[in-house]
Structures are given as structure tokens and as C-alpha cells.
Amino acid sequence: MTVTQDLLGYLAPRGRGGEFYQRVLDTDSRQVPGLLRRTGPFGDEATEVPISTYLTREFHDLEVEKVWKRTWQMACREDEIADVGDTLVYDIADMSFIIARVTPTVIRAYPNACLHRGRKLVDSGLRCATRLRQFRCAFHGFTWDLEGSLASVPGSWDFPHVNFEEWELPQVNVGTWAGFVFINPDPDAGSLEDFLGDIDQHFADYDYANRWTAAHVVKVVPCNWKAAQEAFMESFHVLATHPQLLPQSSNLDAQYDAWGNYSRAMSPNFLPSGFLNWLPTEQEIVDASVDRRLDAEQKVVVPDGTTARLVMADQARASLTKVLGDRSDRLSDAEVSDSFYFTLFPNLHPWSAYNRICFRFRPYGNDPDRAIQDVYLLSPYSGERPPAAAIHYLREDEDFTTGHEIGPYLARILNQDLYNMPNVQQGMKATRKPTVTFSRYQELKIRHFHKLLDEAIARP
User: What 3-state DSSP class applies to 220?
Assistant: First the structure.
């Protein structure tokens, strides 16, 4: 009996969430990091959430006031504004912010508005950072330097009431973590460090601050931002939405945890799903994982007496050698094989260890029926850091396969999720049931998110 067959006896332990994944870790060929043994229970009650939270402008306006104007949120990656003067625009609901590197070590954020008559100082929709020496309004030419000081007023004789020292651009709180740049528009906000809690320990061994942005694809999707991101907060949907993954993704048996302002899922790969009613061979597990077609030659062969999980882990360790050196051989099978997907309230979804995926979701203007989905690939590298990829904005009629930077395999999976999105939004409008219902365990991350959202909305 193989290790895979032995583990299958523990698939889908009813009422004992996380037990199967811990048994998977017991079979690892290397020492497993202690953090993977950590658990963060979040009760076991089911949650009912009013459908109106996904549909109405009234609730959206509450989110703007209580969440987006008062919460730490990821604006960009540090390497997207790598050099002095590099500037991006971060838009959220009807707000817009300038994010700029003003010295090699200082990043600042300002409301994206001229103090004269309100025009945006920097236009939105930039494919990459614009390198600026100053912020000059394209309407009348009022100009500020990178540090926010008023530098020039055309026809200044006509503005004797404008005091240059008082007309500095107002600053917005800025913080950085793991290569991400965060802002918080609330001048009375607590520190980013307090908001993050101990999430850093889950990423510390993987040098996220020094990843480079290998891809950044953006698409407007046809559903509320919460409904969009909730599709990426559990593995339960793989059964119906991504059935091609069932032979190689043990999605029913993921472990879910929550702490503070973040949550985590750990989903084992290169093991068959508990939803399957047949047992794939080790070779069939690998073939599914590399998306092998029936008429194609085998890309990876599993030798007799070993497992798909070990073969794929060995391949991953070998590929990381050029970046990590000998350290790659000490990485556990779990670290190079499994999906560790985190959610940091309200909308950031970084995947830890050596999966490169990161998602961000936000409202599309003030439209509760549409959202902006950002897809990042954050790659380790050796030598000099490559320049961050340009942002690829997909048109409404383009699906994720047009975002060639993320690769066809991930793009096809995202398209399956995309197919659900308008049907979820329209279905919520059609139903006579006033709530959506989340499960006790497999949708734990979503329940945790709504707890934090409720707390944010309820604050004075």
C-alpha cells in the first residue's frame, strides 16, 4: 500500500476539520515548519449573511465610510515604484490616491486632487509607474514637488490668498509589509503593525519583501467585490467549478484557521479529492496536475514505488535551487507542493511558501454589481531584481486567457471562477431567500471575514 492509499483512509473526517491535512504533514519527507502545525479555530456555528450586503448602494456607501476610509489596504507592490519619482494611482470606490517614492527609502501617499479646482493630479489607469519630478495639474498648471510642497502657481499675483506653506498636499498614512505598500486614509488610524498582528511569521521564511512582480493582470468582473473574493477563500467549490482538479487536489480536506485580521487555508496537492468515487493512480495524479491531454506524451513519469506528491515536490525543490541554493533541498514537501492561501482583511489574498499567486479585490467605483480583480504573480529571483511587469488591464470582452503573463493553466482556472460571477450576482437578486448561508468549517474564512466586516460597519 502506498502512502497515498494509506492517507485516503482519513479523507474527509466528518466534524474534525484539519485532521487530514495534519496527517499529510506526518508523511512529509522533510521536517515540516512548526507554523503548519498551528491551528486557529473560529467556532463552528453556521453564518447567515443578508443578501443586501452584496446588492445595495446603501450598504456599499457604509463600506466606503467604515471600511475603505478607515482600514489599512494594499495599494501596490514596492517594486512597482522602485525608483525615486515612480508614481502609481490607487483608486478605491470614488476615492483616488497618489502613491509615490519620494526618496530611496520613503514612500508617500496623497489624495489625488489638485488643491486649486480639484482635477486629478495623476491620471488613473497607468500600465506602469510614471516617473515624475513633480505633480503638475494638467488643468491650470499648479505644481507640487514629490514631498508635497507647493512649488509653482501660474499667475501667482492673482492668488495672494494662497500661502505656499499651507498649501502642501495632505499626506495619507503609509506602511509597508512583505513588499506590499499599504495606505490608510484615516488620520487617526492605528499602526499597520498592530493591524497585521502576527501574520508576518507565516511569510518570514519566504522573503516576500524581495519577490518581484512577474505579472499583474487586472479585470473588472461582473459581481460584488465580496462575492468575487469569497470564491477564492475556500476549496469547497472545486467539486463543481474546477472538476479537472479533483484527481490531484484534496480540496475537501483543507485546513482552515483564523487569527486577528487574517485567516489561512492549507489545501494539500498531488493527492486525490475526497469527492472522487474512484482512485487515480500516482501517474494519473501527476498527469492531472500538469494538465496532460490524452493524446500528449507524459511530461513527468512517476517511478514505481514512489508517489506523485514526492515526485512533484522533488521537481519543485530542484527548480528552486538556482534561487535558494542548497536551502531548497531542506524545504518540506508541503512548502513546495501545497496551497497556503491567506486573506488579510479587507481584500488582500497572498499565498505563502512558494506558490506565487496573490489576489486583490475592490469595488469598481460605486457600482455594487461590479468589482476589480487584481492577479499578481510574485516570484523569487537571484541576482539583480528584474523590473516589475507592466499592469495588463483586460477589456470587458477579454477573459483571463488574454492575460498571457499569468500562463494558460491559471488563466483557465480563473475563467471557470469568472463564469460563476455574474450568475451569483444575478441569482442573489432573483432569490426569495433573504440571506446566503455559509458552512461551519469549509467556509470558515468567509465567516471570519464577515465578522470583521460587521465589526468595521458597527464602529462609531
Answer: strand
**80 near 129, Cβ under 8 Å?**
yes
CA dist 422 and 228 (Å) reads 10
Q: How many residues does the chain have?
A: 460
Sheet with 212-221, edge to edge strand ranges:
255-259, 262-267, 339-344, 348-350, 357-364, 367-379, 212-221, 391-393
Amino acid occupying residue 371: A
Domain match, 289 and 352 both = yes
pLDDT of 30-70, one tens digit each?
Answer: 999 999 999 998 887 768 999 999 999 999 999 999 999 99
Q: What is the DSSP string of 32-62?
A: PPGGGG---------EEEETHHHH-HHHHHH
| 127, pLDDT greater than 90 | no
Cell 463552528 sits on residue: 44
Domain of 96 in residue numbering reads as 73-188
User: Does a structural domain hold residue 15?
Assistant: yes
> Which grid cell is 418?
469568472
Give the model confidence (pLDDT) of 133-151 as tens digits.
999 999 999 999 999 999 9
Contacts for 342 with CB less than 8 Å, ≥ 6 apart: 199, 202, 262, 263, 264, 265, 349, 350, 351, 352
d(CA 350, CA 281): 32
Domain holding 331: CATH number?
3.90.380
Give the list of residues 6+ apart from residue 306 with CB closer than 8 angstroms, or none.
282
Domain count, the chain: 2
